[in-house]
Amino acid sequence: MRRLAAVLATAAVTAGVLAGCGGDDGNWAKKCTTTDGVVECAPDKRPAVEPITGELLDGTAYDMAQQKGKVVVVNFWGSWCAPCRAEADDLENTYQATKDKGVSFIGVNSRDDRDAAREFERGRVTYPSLYDFPGQVGIQFDVTNVSMPATLIIDRQGRIAVALRQATTEAQLKPLVEKVAAEGQG
């Protein structure tokens, strides 16, 4: 029952990635192309996000501002989320394949026990995750409608280039990350 309450609370806090952002009128995703739960924004339509900060699962501090000039892939997950578990290997494989292209990954663990989250990550992913029990990171990004799992690809200028509103696969995610990483690199 407690788990159900946590899941419902997460849904309530983050319900509804991407109805509003950064002072926009809440319609920025409508200015982008949406296909099968994937929102892709042309560079001139991308909403800027404020860099997020927080505490990682290992207790150290994280500041997204330190990733300035990099593409940042942000994945919202919970160890209790079956689709999150299913996509973990695909996220790690994409991270390994793109990290030398100026790409960093950060997970955002919500509505979870810290020990359960650490155990879930052990042996699955090598990139860090923020511990965000109350689900505030979506609010820090000033985006709503963050479901779990969900993934944002933030371009080198700190704008949302792509939002995936569902579990992803390496075959889906890697080309999207590579496309955003290649922008301006020619």
TrEMBL record:
Keywords: Cytochrome c-type biogenesis, Disulfide bond, Redox-active center, Signal, Signal-anchor, Transmembrane. Residues 1-19 form the signal peptide. InterPro entries: Redoxin (IPR013740), Thioredoxin-like_sf (IPR036249), Thioredoxin_CS (IPR017937), Thioredoxin_domain (IPR013766), Thioredoxin_ResA/DsbE_sf (IPR050553). It is found in: Cell envelope. It holds the Pfam family Redoxin. CDD domains: TlpA_like_family. Residues 40-182 form the Thioredoxin domain. SUPFAM superfamilies: Thioredoxin-like. PROSITE patterns: PROKAR_LIPOPROTEIN, THIOREDOXIN_1, THIOREDOXIN_2. This is TlpA family protein disulfide reductase.
